[in-house]
Amino acid sequence: MDKKRIALHFLFWIVTALFLGTYISYRSGFTSTNSWIILMLLPVCMGTAYFINYYLIKSFLIPGHYGKFLLFTAYSLIVAFYLESLILIFIFVFVADFDSSQANFDTLFTVVGMLLPIILGVSIKVFRLFIHSDKKDEGIQKITLRADRKNVQVDVNDIIFIEGLKDYVKVYLTNEAPLITKEKMMTIQNNLDDKGLVRVHKSYIVATSNIKSYNSKEMEMSNGKIVPIGKTYRESFKARLADGTLT
User: Fold this and answer.
1) Could you give the 3-state DSSP secondary structure of residue 145?
2) Domain identity same for 88 and 119
3) Dihedral angle, C-alpha 59, 87, 117, 131, nearest 10 °
4) Do 227 and 120 reside in the same domain of the chain?
């Protein structure tokens, strides 16, 4: 966890402590017992929030086990509810010494108030994950190619380059074996031309992000393969270099 995030967490719990102090005093009035309530219940809030955010979300929500995530989150909140109730009883007996004037708090009202920061913290975490996932999905572009008598979804970001041979087209991918398809090069080019891939030869379409090095006649791709630059496509390739649209 970086320093900026630690500072944000610290600020969140400081604001939470101030909120809880105001919240509890609003119902029961300010007493010295309020400080004990916040001091002893805040760690329960923090522990529950971090358990949900850094264990349950990672173990169940992100992998897609939504039912288990909701179930264990509910269990965690119930445990926190009863634990906070027990702490309030402890404060009433041992701190306030059964003096209702010093422990004039509504147990249910107080516990519900202590659960609010937990719910808020978890909601912020889930919202950030949702936004991050949404942006990630927006960055994923796929095309459908016909290969091995079936339609195959190919992530455009995985394409290194495409080689057109006599009777078929070979699609070189980053972490997989080349994909063989009967699709025409022109059809593939029309689907990929606005997705960071450019035709540099009558038989080659390359992913600009996977060009390792190049000169006026050829380029080396990230997988070590050499791709020629055709005379017909050389000028358009240079133009894309000049105006910055290559990447």
Assistant:
1) strand
2) yes
3) 0
4) no
The count of structural domains within the chain is 2
Kindly report, residue by residue over 193-203, the tens digit of the pLDDT: 667 788 899 99
Which of 85, 118, 139 delimits the end of a domain?
A: 139
Q: Which of 139, 161, 177 is the last residue of a domain?
A: 139
Domain range enclosing 16:
3-139
What global pTM score does this model have? 0.54
The DSSP code for 166 is S
Q: How far is CA 11 from CA 15, 18, 70, 229, in A?
A: 6, 11, 27, 56
Residue 102 near residue 96, CB atoms below 8 Å:
yes
The CA R_g of the chain, rounded to the nearest whole Å, is: 30
Band of the pLDDT at 180, cuts 50, 70, 90? very high
Q: Let me know if 185 is exposed, middle or buried by CB neighbors in 10 A (0-12, 13-18, 19+).
A: middle
Beta bridge partners of 211: 221
